[in-house]
Write a structure and sequence with these properties.
The complex is a heterodimer of chains A (about 525) and B (about 325). Chain A has about 525 residues and is an alpha/beta fold. In chain A, about 35% of the residues lie in helices and about 25% in strands. Chain A folds into two domains: about 240 residues, P-loop containing nucleotide triphosphate hydrolases (Rossmann fold), CATH 3.40.50.300; about 140 residues, 3-Layer(aba) Sandwich (Rossmann fold), CATH 3.40.50.300. In chain A, a hairpin with a 2-residue loop joins strand 1 and strand 2. The N and C termini of chain A lie far apart (about 55 Å). The relative contact order of chain A is 0.10. In chain B, the strands form two sheets. A two-stranded antiparallel sheet of chain B has the order 1-4. In chain B, strands 2-3 form a two-stranded antiparallel ribbon. In chain B, helix 5 runs antiparallel to helix 6. The longest helix of chain B has 27 residues. In chain B, about 50% of the residues are buried. Classes of the chains: A alpha/beta (about 525), B mainly alpha (about 325).
C-alpha cells in the first residue's frame, strides 16, 4: 500500500502557529478522519499536502522517500486528489464535459470526439457504480450530491497512474441524507479498490461510521490519532474542544419546573396553525405549533423540508390552505409581509440566500427591521440601529470587531450568528430555521443549539428543518417527517433513535398521501 | 505609502488633472468664472449621472436615459409651439419621463427582462418617439418661449465688474438640488439602504423582507424623471430642441458613475463619488477645449483616461484583496 507520511509539519503565519509539529501517516485502503474546530489547522494541513503552500519545517514522505509538493501539479502527480465542498461546476455543460474540465478532451483532427468524451466519462462513472448518471445530460439536472460524485469519478479518467489518496473537505456539507448515503457507498467502493481517504468533517455520526482512524487537531497541534474502534463521540468532542461537554444538546427546560412556570405565563393557544397548506412540492400540510415549542422537520432530499419553511415565509406562493398566526388568519404573499407579522427566517444557503455580501454586520442584521427603526418610518436612525445590534449581538454571542465589520471577514459560525441576530432582532413570534448548523464548527454548533433552546424558553415557536438526524432528535419537542411534500409522520420526540427516525423518513407514504 | 496610493490613487489623479490644466492655462483655468462655466456645462450630465447611480446601486443599468432626455426636450418644445403654457408643458414632459421610467421598471422587475436588454429596447422606442413627436425637426427661435430660454442663462447674481454681472447659474442650482436629493435618498433613508441591499444580494434581500420588485420598479421611475429633467435643462440651455440632443448623456453618465466607483471603499456606486466623476469629465472637456485640442482627439483622450482610472483601480483592489 502506498503511504504519505507527514513528518512534524509546521506552518507559521505571522506569529501564530497554524500547524505545529503535526505527524501522521495516510495509507491506501483506509479512511482517515480529520477533525477539529474551525481554526484548528485542518485547512492548513490540506493546503500543505495539496502543494498550495510549503511547510516552514517538517517533511512529506511518499512511501518513505522524501517528496516536495511545490505546486498542485506535484501533488496530483503523486496520486493525490482533492474534493472540495464548494463544487465548481458549469451547469450548462454536460456531465461528461464537466468531468473533462481539467483534462484534455478526446479529439480527432482538432475536433472534439463527442462519443469518446461521453464513453470516457461513462466508464469512470461505472467504475464507482454510478451507471445511473447519464454523462450526456447537462450538469444542471443533477443535485449537488450527484455533482460531487461526478467530480470524484472524473479523477478516474485517463491513463496516468490511478490516484490513490482522496482528500475530501466537508463533502457532505451541501448534501441531503440520501445524497450523502450515495457518497458513502462511493467511498466504500474507492476504499475496496485500494484508495485511501482523508475525510475532513464536522459531522460526528459520519466520522464514527466511515473512518478507520481518527485524527483530532486543536490549535494547530495534533491531539490524538486513534483507531475509530478505540474511541467514542464524547472523547472526540473532548479532544476537539478541550473541555468536557457531557451532552451535545442543552436540556429541554420546557419539561422542568422553571420551563413549566414560564410556559404558564404565556398566552394560551397555538402560535401557528397550518390547515391543508398546499404549494408547489407541498401537499395538504396540517399542523399546529405552540409557543415555546421546537418542531423539527426532516425528510429525504426533495421531501419538501425547505419548501415548507419558504411557504411559511411567503417566498413560495400557496395554491391553497390557511395559515393562522396567534389565532388571526394571515395571508403571506412576500417575505416582507412575513417579517412584519412576526415570522423570522434563517435561510439554508448562508451566502446566496442570507448575507448581503459586501455589507457590514449592522447592515445585515438590521435589514428586515429598517422601517421599524427609522425616524418617521423613512429616515435612517443609525444610533438605534447600532443599539439594537449591540443587544442582539450580545444575545447570540457574535464575535466581530464591531458593527462596521464587513460580514465577509467573519467565520462561518459567526456569519450564521449574524443571521440569527437578524432573525431575533425584530422580536418575532415564530422562528423558521433551515439547516441552521450547516458548515459551522462544533463550538458554534453548541452556541446555536443553546440559542434555539433559549429562544423557545422565551416563548418563541421554532420550526427547524434539518437533514442532521442527531440534531433533530437532540433539539425537537416534536418531529415532523415529510415524504415527497406530504406530512408523513408527526410524532412526539420521546425515546427517538436515529435508526427509528431514518426508517420513518424512508417508509412508504401513508395511504392518504397517494390520493 | 503604496497603500495610500492604491486606496486614494483615483482622487490624486483627479487632483493632478486639475493641477495640470492650471499650469497649462494659468490665465483662464483657475478662475471663478471658468468654474461656474464648468458647473453649468456639467449640470445636465450631473442630473443624469445622479439618477443613474440610483439604478446602478442595485446592480442595474438604464440605457434609455439619453433618449428619454431627448424625448422630454422635444415634447416640451412641441407643446410650446401649440401654445401650451410653459409650466404645463414642463409638467407633461416630466410626466412622460415618469411613465417611461415606470415602463422600464415594469419590464425589468415584473416581466423579468435583463435591464440591459429592456432599456436598450426602450432606448430605441423613446428615440423613435422623439423623432415622431418633432417630425425630425429642430424646434428653435420664436417657438421657444423667452422665459424658458432665459432660465438657463440666468442665475443668482454674485458680483458685477464693468457692467457684467457674474451669476451662479440656475442650471447648476438645479443639478446641486437633484444631487442633494439623491444623496438623502440613497444615504439617509431606509429606501436607499434597501437598494444597496438589493445590489449586494438580491435573493437574500428578498428573503430578508425587502420588497425587491417594488423597489426596482420605483428606482427606474426615479431615473426616468431625472432623465426628463435633464432633457428640459438641455433644451433651456440651447433654447432649442432636437430629437437627438440628449443621446450623448447616457454613455457619459455611466462612465461618470464608474469613475466614481473607483473612489469608494468597496467599489459601490455612491452619489458623491459620481459627482466627483462628473466633475472630472467636465474639467477634462473644459480644459482640453481651452487648449484647442481637436474634438476627436479629445474623445480619444477622455476614453483613455476612463480606462486608465478604472483599470488602475481594479488592479489596486486586486493587490489589496490578494486576488
Amino acid at each position: 500500500m502506498t503511504t504519505l507520511t507527514l513528518d512534524a509539519l509546521t506552518r507559521i503565519y505571522g506569529t501564530s502557529r497554524a500547524l505545529d509539529g503535526v505527524s501522521l501517516t495516510l495509507t491506501g485502503g483506509e479512511v482517515h478522519a480529520l477533525m477539529g474546530e474551525n481554526g484548528a489547522g485542518k485547512s492548513t494541513l490540506i493546503r500543505l499536502i495539496a502543494g498550495l503552500e510549503r511547510p516552514d519545517t517538517g517533511k512529506l514522505r511518499l512511501d518513505g522517500q522524501p517528496v516536495t509538493f511545490d505546486s498542485p501539479a506535484a501533488a496530483q502527480a503523486a496520486g493525490l486528489r482533492f474534493i472540495h465542498q464548494e463544487l465548481h461546476v458549469v451547469p450548462a455543460l454536460s456531465v461528461a464535459e464537466n468531468m473533462h474540465l481539467s483534462l484534455p478532451y478526446p479529439r480527432r483532427l482538432g475536433l472534439i470526439r463527442w462519443s469518446a468524451l461521453a464513453d470516457a466519462a461513462g466508464t469512470a462513472l461505472a467504475r464507482l457504480g454510478l451507471s445511473q448518471i447519464d454523462p450526456r445530460q447537462p450538469m444542471s439536472r443533477l443535485g449537488p450530491g450527484d455533482q460531487m460524485l461526478t467530480r470524484i469519478a472524473a479523477t478516474l479518467i485517463g491513463t496516468e497512474a490511478r490516484p490513490w489518496l482522496y482528500v475530501m473537505d466537508e463533502p457532505t456539507a451541501a448534501l441531503t441524507g440520501a445524497e450523502a448515503e450515495r457518497l458513502f457507498t462511493v467511498i466504500a467502493e474507492l476504499k475496496s479498490q485500494g484508495a485511501g481517504i482523508l475525510y475532513v468533517s464536522h459531522r460526528m455520526a459520519e466520522v464514527m461510521r466511515l473512518s478507520d482512524r481518527v485524527t483530532v487537531l486543536r490549535d494547530g497541534k495534533l491531539i490524538t490519532t486513534t483507531p475509530r474502534a478505540g474511541t467514542d463521540q464524547t472523547r472526540l468532542i473532548h479532544a476537539m474542544t478541550g473541555r468536557d461537554l457531557s451532552a451535545m444538546f442543552p436540556p429541554r427546560t420546557l419539561h422542568n419546573n422553571e420551563g413549566a412556570r414560564r410556559a404558564e405565563e404565556r398566552p394560551q393557544g397555538p402560535a401557528l396553525t397550518l390547515t391543508c397548506l398546499t404549494a408547489p412540492n407541498l401537499h395538504q400540510i396540517t399542523l399546529t405549533l405552540a409557543p415555546g415549542e421546537v418542531l423539527g422537520v426532516t425528510g429525504l432530499s426533495g421531501s419538501g423540508r425547505g419548501a415548507l419553511l419558504r411557504a411559511l415565509m411567503g417566498a413560495l406562493p400557496l395554491t391553497s390552505g390557511k395559515i393562522t398566526l396567534n389565532g388571526q388568519p394571515v395571508t403571506l404573499t412576500s417575505p416582507a409581509e412575513a417579517w412584519t407579522k412576526g415570522i423570522a427566517y434563517v435561510p439554508r444557503e448562508r451566502r446566496t440566500e442570507g448575507l448581503i455580501s459586501g455589507g457590514t454586520v449592522v447592515e445585515n442584521v438590521t435589514l428586515p427591521h429598517l422601517t421599524a427603526l427609522a425616524r418617521a418610518r423613512r429616515f435612517r436612525n443609525r444610533p438605534r440601529e447600532r443599539a439594537l445590534l449591540a443587544d442582539v449581538a450580545m444575545a447570540v454571542r457574535l464575535k466581530s470587531t464591531g458593527p462596521a465589520q464587513p460580514v465577509g471577514q467573519l467565520s462561518g459560525g459567526n456569519q450564521q450568528k449574524v443571521l440569527f441576530a437578524r432573525a431575533i432582532a425584530g422580536a418575532p413570534q415564530v422562528l423558521l430555521l433551515d439547516e441552521p448548523t450547516r458548515g459551522v464548527d462544533v463550538g458554534a454548533k453548541f452556541d446555536i443549539y443553546r440559542l434555539i433552546r433559549q429562544f423557545c424558553d422565551d416563548g418563541l415557536a421554532v420550526i427547524f428543518a434539518s437533514s442532521d438526524l442527531p440534531e433533530i432528535i437532540g433539539l425537537s419537542d416534536r418531529i415532523a417527517v415529510l415524504q415527497s411534500g406530504h406530512l408523513a409522520h408527526l410524532v412526539p420526540n420521546r425515546d427517538m433513535t436515529e435508526a427509528a427516525l431514518l426508517s420513518l423518513c424512508y417508509d412508504q407514504p401513508p395511504a392518504k398521501a397517494s390520493a | 505609502m503604496t497603500h495610500i496610493l492604491r486606496r486614494h490613487g483615483g482622487l490624486l489623479g483627479m487632483v493632478a488633472i486639475v493641477l495640470i490644466f492650471w499650469a497649462l492655462l494659468p490665465e483662464t483655468f483657475m478662475t471663478a468664472q471658468n468654474w461656474l462655466n464648468i458647473s453649468q456645462q456639467i449640470a445636465m450630465l450631473l442630473v443624469v449621472a445622479a439618477v443613474m447611480t440610483v439604478v446602478m446601486v442595485m446592480g442595474d443599468f438604464d440605457l434609455s436615459v439619453g433618449a428619454m432626455a431627448s424625448l422630454a426636450g422635444v415634447l416640451a418644445a412641441v407643446l410650446f409651439t401649440l401654445g401650451v403654457p410653459v409650466w404645463a408643458a414642463l409638467l407633461a414632459a416630466l410626466a412622460v419621463g415618469l411613465l417611461g421610467g415606470l415602463i422600464n421598471g415594469v419590464l425589468v422587475s415584473l416581466v423579468g427582462i435583463l435591464p440591459f436588454v429592456a432599456t436598450l429596447a426602450t432606448l430605441t422606442i423613446y428615440s423613435g418617439l422623439a423623432f415622431l413627436v418633432s417630425d425630425g425637426r429642430t424646434i428653435f427661435g420664436r417657438d421657444i418661449p423667452e422665459g424658458f430660454g432665459n432660465f438657463a442663462r440666468g442665475g443668482i447674481p454674485l458680483w458685477t465688474v464693468d457692467e457684467r454681472t457674474t451669476v451662479f447659474p440656475n442650471l447648476t442650482l438645479v443639478a446641486i438640488a437633484v444631487t442633494l436629493l439623491i444623496w438623502i435618498v440613497l444615504e439617509q433613508t431606509t429606501y436607499g439602504r434597501r437598494l444597496y441591499a438589493i445590489g449586494g444580494n438580491r435573493d437574500a434581500a428578498r428573503l430578508a423582507g425587502v420588497r425587491v420588485s417594488a423597489l426596482r420598479l420605483s428606482a427606474f421611475a426615479f431615473t426616468g424623471v431625472g432623465a426628463a429633467l435633464a432633457g428640459l435643462m438641455y433644451a433651456s440651455r440651447v433654447a432649442s430642441a432636437n430629437p437627438t440632443q440628449g443621446d450623448g448623456l447616457m454613455l457619459t453618465a455611466i462612465a461618470a458613475v464608474f469613475l466614481g466607483m473607483t473612489l469608494t471603499e468597496n467599489g459601490q456606486p455612491r452619489v458623491l463619488a459620481t459627482l466627483a466623476g462628473v466633475v472630472v469629465l467636465g474639467v477634462l472637456d473644459n480644459g482640453l477645449t481651452q487648449l484647442a485640442v481637436n474634438s476627436y482627439v479629445r474623445e480619444v483622450l477622455i476614453g483613455l483616461i476612463i480606462v486608465a482610472a478604472v483599470g488602475t483601480s481594479a488592479l489596486g483592489r486586486r493587490a489589496i484583496t490578494g486576488r
